[in-house]
Write a structure and sequence with these properties.
The complex is a heterodimer of chains A (310) and B (502). With 310 residues, chain A is mostly helical. Chain A has one domain: ABC transporter involved in vitamin B12 uptake, BtuC (Orthogonal Bundle), CATH 1.10.3470. Chain A contains 13 helices and two strands; from the N terminus they run αααααβααααβαααα. Chain B has 17 helices and 22 strands. Classes of the chains: A mainly alpha (310), B alpha/beta (502).
Chain lengths: 310, 502
């Protein structure tokens, strides 16, 4: 029994390796060049940071679609504020806005019993609108001091630190356990003395916080904000979690390492198709089809578990 | 090939799941108008056999004949077409749909016009069925998921009757019903029988099984051991046949009077709730087992929820003198050295998709925390492993999925995870629902031991024998009120209780 499960979990890693080989051949080896590996890692890191927060929400069977919008708005407003009041305000402002959005999501979902899908979708639309207010008539540039962080090793170190901290909380603490237990069976969770409202708000807070970090990372990379900043980020983040083989309903099968594999898969597909000389006209269509295929394969592998939970 | 005269004739039917053989060359014959009971321990293959007859599972080998013709259903729908209907042990309704739609699911054509389902037509059809079989009226517009387990079972029963079955299969249905609805079911069985239709049923209530059936087939380890005349067998004989060994005497308590500590663990004072409970007062002492009995709408199950803080209180208070604390809201219960094992364990108590380990440890996570909130895998595994051994859960290991366990073993986890903690009070709602005699005896043993160690226990039960056998004091409820409190002693009999219940 144990061995069977381990084998199943390993399959998504094998799938990732297979994709490496295929795209490696398609790009005649360019895929493995130092520059490109760095590039893929860079792309994956943003997804991982976002997914580290969202995975808590997904574990409890909810969704957070506002990640991209939250990232863009919190980073952009923080830029505007830091221009006025000085650089010191940038990071606190950014995180505070991210947390506020998360808190709003959490309160609306848990107190008003609105489905998280609808609530965060509405939040996404609102945030996108808000972003336009700041980006239509003025160019928003990232504070110059922020560029000091734009070094690959620094970013990798930060991401690893995030993975260690949030991974620990998710896998080895009561909070993480409770999030997952709520995804398994919320009625049961309440009877077990789990404060479902508090835990749910906590999950959305974390998701909002990590979204604002995604904003900072994007700002560092792009040097400024635009009206398209962070668009589709929420999709990439959710995709990463599901590609790794996590159930849409959450639960105890949700694992951080699965999400990391998923994040690399997404970046690899985008990057590999680009290097493989797929015409740009078809790029997104092929990307979509490939994603669907990978998702299907992951589900096939996990079927034993899925069948037990219709 | 098929012998004449049998309604259903099964030859050498086998079915295995992976390496476990659930049914081994089963031979089974059913006459018209026969009421057949199946007896056997959890995991002896009763449900598997019925599921094959009802088309839920396909068989590996063997043959089935219905009225002399080959019968090989590939789905419950094709079984329905041959007029065989089942009410399953697990919950078989679509929770998001109204009860009425559930009844005619897949057969809504009858009740619809231009593709629109007519509520009136459904109501009419259901009224015809309930009137014909003298069943109580059921509310059709409530979402099935909002109905309690008992009403859901009644809805499923009406659905099974809606196909006008020749063979009705009831898989542990009575266990979910309270006394009054059981009466309806017994009447229904008699009517079916009088019309020459047959019934196959499973019940872990041995006395009941003997009472309502004509014949009983005993299953053990996937084989039919023998089929006996119900009139010619005594309960203890049958129990012995089921488990294959002699059960040690009476598994209930034999002491004559109430016996518990003086210290009050729980004090309920004049409580009324939004759900309708009115003016409840009672107290639970250290080492006392307090039972709650009543008919289906008497509110006994809400008492459990109330004590645990899951009900909204309008008046009065639920008080824990030991902790000097009041129970007002959700989460108050579990934080107050209290445990609660709900009646509907699959949906309310357990994580079916998770492992046995995760189900065991969840209630004890706080105690297992190390520095920086660390929950080490080793510690969790050790607790689960100890609990699995202590409560004799039959499984391949603590990482086995909960959904693969039989009802009795699920219940051991459900109770065990509370019993392993150091608690003052435990509320158990129908602790032996869907549990065979062997496990039942074991669970009673566990409760008796916990009581001896000073745990106050509230037992809410639909089975009077269980309440009489286990409790120090019994509270009988009717219409959301307490009508009588009886202490262990001469008045402790089913008759006296039923008298005040109805």
């Amino acid at each position: 029994m144990m061995r069977k499960i381990a084998w199943k979990d390993l399959m998504s890693l094998l799938l990732l390796l297979l994709m490496c080989v295929v795209f490696g051949i398609m790009s005649r080896g360019i895929l493995f060049s130092t520059y490109n590996v760095k590039n893929i890692t860079e792309q994956s890191m943003q997804v991982i940071i976002g997914a580290l927060g969202v995975i808590y929400v997904i574990a409890m069977g909810s969704t957070d679609l506002s990640v991209g919008g939250n990232a863009a708005v919190s980073a952009t407003i923080a830029c505007v504020l830091s221009e006025k009041f000085g650089f010191w305000i940038f990071v606190p402002a950014c995180l505070l806005i991210g947390l506020t959005v998360g808190l709003l999501n959490g309160l609306i979902v848990s107190k008003c019993k609105v489905s998280s899908f609808m609530c965060t979708l509405a939040m996404l639309i609102a945030l996108r609108g808000l972003l336009n207010v700041f980006t239509t008539d003025a160019v928003v540039l990232a504070p110059a001091r922020l560029q000091a962080l734009n070094r690959f090793p620094v970013k990798v170190a930060i991401v690893i630190a995030f993975i260690l901290i949030l991974g620990y909380v998710f896998e080895f603490t009561r909070f993480g356990y409770y999030c997952k237990a709520m995804g398994e069976n919320e009625q049961m969770a309440i009877r077990m003395g789990i404060d479902a409202v508090k835990i749910r708000i906590g999950g959305f807070l974390l998701s909002g916080l990590m979204a604002s970090f995604v904003g900072i990372f994007q700002l560092i990379q792009q040097g400024g904000s635009s009206s398209t900043m962070g668009s589709f980020m929420e999709m990439k983040v959710m995709m990463a979690v599901f590609l790794g083989g996590v159930m849409v309903t959450g639960g105890l099968g949700t694992k951080i390492y699965k999400m990391i594999i998923g994040a690399f898969m997404i970046s690899l597909i985008v990057n590999g198709l680009y290097l493989g000389n797929v015409s740009t006209d078809y790029l997104n269509a092929v990307e979509g089809i490939l994603l669907m295929l990978v998702l299907y394969m992951t589900l096939r592998i996990q079927r034993g578990r899925a069948a037990a939970r219709p | 090939m098929a012998q004449e005269g049998y309604l259903l004739d099964i030859r050498k039917l086998s079915k295995s799941f992976g390496s476990t053989q659930a049914n081994k060359e089963i031979d089974f014959q059913l006459k018209c108008g026969e009421v057949r009971g199946l007896a056997g321990e959890n995991g002896s293959g009763k449900s598997t056999l019925l599921s094959q007859i009802a088309g839920i599972y396909s068989h590996d080998s063997g043959e089935m004949y219905l009225k002399g013709e080959p019968y090989q259903p590939d789905s419950p729908i094709s079984a329905n077409e041959r007029r065989i209907a089942i009410v399953v042990q697990e919950l078989g309704l679509v929770g998001a749909l109204p009860a009425g739609i559930n009844i005619f699911l897949g057969k809504t054509k009858k009740c619809s016009r231009f593709g629109m389902i007519s509520q009136k037509a459904i109501q009419r059809e259901v009224d015809v069925i309930t009137a014909a079989w003298e069943l109580p009226k059921i509310s059709l517009n409530t979402r099935a998921g909002d109905l309690n387990i008992e009403h859901r079972k009644m809805v499923e029963l009406v659905r099974a009757l809606s196909i006008d079955p020749d063979i009705l299969i009831l898989d542990e249905v009575t266990q979910s019903l309270s006394q009054d609805n059981r009466k309806y079911l017994y009447g229904l069985i008699q009517k079916l029988k009088a019309q020459g239709r047959s019934v196959i049923l499973i019940s872990h209530d041995i006395e009941e099984l003997i009472d309502i059936t004509d014949t009983i087939s005993v299953l053990r380890d996937g084989e039919i051991l023998e089929t006996v005349e119900s009139a010619a067998i005594r309960p203890d004989e049958l129990k012995q046949k089921m488990v294959g060994r002699k059960l040690e005497g009476d598994y209930y308590r034999s002491d004559p009077g109430p016996d518990h500590g003086d210290e009050v663990v729980l004090e309920v004072q004049g409580v009324s709730t939004e759900s309708g409970l009115s003016d409840l007062s009672f107290s639970v002492h250290k080492g006392e087992i307090l039972g709650f009995c009543g008919l289906s709408d008497s509110g006994i199950h809400n008492v459990g929820r109330l004590v645990y803080g899951l009900e909204r209180i309008c008046k009065g208070r639920v008080f824990l003198p030991g902790l000097n604390r009041e129970i007002r809201r959700q989460w108050d219960g579990p934080k107050s050295r209290m445990g609660y094992a709900p009646k509907d364990r699959d949906t309310d108590a357990l994580m079916m998709g998770a492992s046995i380990r995760d189900n065991f440890v969840l209630s004890s996570l706080k105690e297992l925390e190390g520095p920086v909130g660390f929950l080490g895998r080793k510690r969790l595994n050790r607790l689960a492993e100890e609990a699995r051994e202590a409560y004799q859960v039959k499984c391949t290991g603590i990482s086995q999925s909960m959904s693969e366990l039989s009802g009795g073993n699920k219940q051991k986890v459900n109770l065990g995870r509370w019993l392993l903690k150091d608690l003052d009070l435990l509320v158990v709602d129908c602790p032996t629902r869907g549990v065979d005699v062997g496990v039942k005896a074991y669970l009673y043993q566990c409760l008796k031991e916990a009581r001896k160690e000073g745990l106050g226990i509230v037992v809410i039960t639909d089975e009077l024998a269980e309440a009489i056998g286990m409790c120090d004091n019994i509270v009988v409820m009717k219409d959301q009120r307490i009508v009588k409190k009886i202490a262990r002693g001469p008045g402790f009999q089913e008759e006296t209780m039923i008298e005040v219940m109805i």
